[in-house]
């Protein structure tokens, strides 16, 4: 370690003036605050979630996090919202960047979309078609097996349901089914990235979309859905 510190000090002295050595302790000081062991949590893209469940690496990764932290990581299943206006072959990685509120991606404009519709008769977890395996679907349906899979997680699960498509009855049916199927259901999220909805979004009903429009929409959905969905203690939340 010493030669490295010296080299750094010499370089710094030459270019920037005197160096300041910082010693990073290998163990926390006795007066350090304790961090909640469940702080590490994982978000899994909604449409890709059943695929992740088929990879052994997924459970291995979650188990590693659990043993490192001493607590099961909480899991949020949600997302799948980015709609690239001029180019539909948005790579999955791009969606992740867009989740960090990149409203433009190079020259491409991105508009928020919740796209998933629950189909109580669908025998598969999800159903969608994409032109290339790297694409995110522009619309998809999901069925009861989606919740059976999500019930397999050891950690608490927050489930993202659709608001953008303005089909409250559909999201309610999904929420009730999730509640029945998932003992590990912690919360239901109503709508993904509502800051990216626009006047063309069904939820906007032809009016301009704004923060205040979103606040009223959230309040309305939460009020209308909470009595049945949160009866068992599940919480309602939203993702911005
Ligand atoms: C799955 O989705 C495709 C369109 O992507 C549709 O044609 C097909 O009927 C759907 N299958 C089921 C079982 O819903």
Helix content: 25-40%
Main sheet specs: 5 strands, parallel
Tally of separate domains: 1
Radius of gyration: 22 Å
Rounded average pLDDT: 78
InterPro entries: GH79_Enzymes
Protein name: Glycoside Hydrolase Family 79 protein
Organism: Pycnoporus cinnabarinus (Cinnabar-red polypore)
Signal peptide: 1-21
Give me a quick take on this structure:
The chain has 7 helices and 11 strands. It has helices at residues 2-15, 49-53, 56-69, 92-99, 145-150, 168-181, 211-229, and strands spanning 41-45, 74-78, 82-84, 104-105, 108-112, 116-118, 126-127, 140-142, 157-161, 185-192, 235-239. Helix 6 packs across helix 7.
Structural topology:
Elements: H1 2-15, E1 41-45, H2 49-53, H3 56-69, E2 74-78, E3 82-84, H4 92-99, E4 104-105, E5 108-112, E6 116-118, E7 126-127, E8 140-142, H5 145-150, E9 157-161, H6 168-181, E10 185-192, H7 211-229, E11 235-239
Parallel strand pairs: 1-2, 2-9, 6-8, 9-10, 10-11
Antiparallel strand pairs: 3-5, 4-5, 7-8
Helix pairs in contact: 6-7
2-acetamido-2-deoxy-beta-D-glucopyranose binds at residues 122, 127-129.
Descriptors for this entry?
alpha/beta, 7 helices, binds 2-acetamido-2-deoxy-beta-D-glucopyranose, 33% helix, five-stranded parallel beta sheet, 19% strand, disordered N terminus, 240 residues, TIM Barrel
């Amino acid at each position: 370690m010493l030669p490295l510190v010296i080299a750094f000090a010499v370089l710094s002295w030459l270019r920037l003036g005197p160096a300041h050595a910082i010693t990073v302790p290998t163990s926390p000081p006795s007066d350090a605050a304790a961090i909640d062991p469940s702080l590490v949590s994982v978000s899994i893209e909604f449409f890709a979630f059943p695929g992740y469940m088929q990879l052994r690496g997924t459970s291995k990764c979650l188990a590693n996090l659990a043993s490192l932290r001493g607590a099961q990581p909480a899991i949020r299943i949600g997302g799948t919202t980015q709609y690239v206006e001029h180019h539909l072959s948005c790579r999955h990685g791009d969606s992740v960047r867009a989740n960090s509120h990149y409203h433009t991606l190079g020259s491409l404009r991105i508009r928020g979309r919740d796209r998933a519709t629950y189909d109580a008769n669908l025998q598969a977890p999800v159903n969608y078609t994409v032109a290339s395996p790297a694409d995110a679907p522009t619309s998809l349906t999901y069925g009861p097996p989606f919740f059976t899979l999500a019930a397999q997680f050891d950690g608490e699960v927050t489930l993202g349901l659709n608001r953008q498509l303005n089909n409250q009855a559909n999201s309610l049916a999904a929420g009730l089914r999730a509640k029945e199927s998932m003992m590990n259901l912690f919360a239901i999220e109503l709508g993904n990235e509502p800051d990216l909805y626009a006047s063309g979004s069904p939820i906007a009903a032809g009016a301009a979309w704004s923060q205040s429009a979103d606040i009223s929409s959230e309040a309305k959905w939460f009020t209308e859905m909470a009595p049945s969905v949160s009866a068992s203690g599940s919480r309602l939340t939203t993702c911005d």
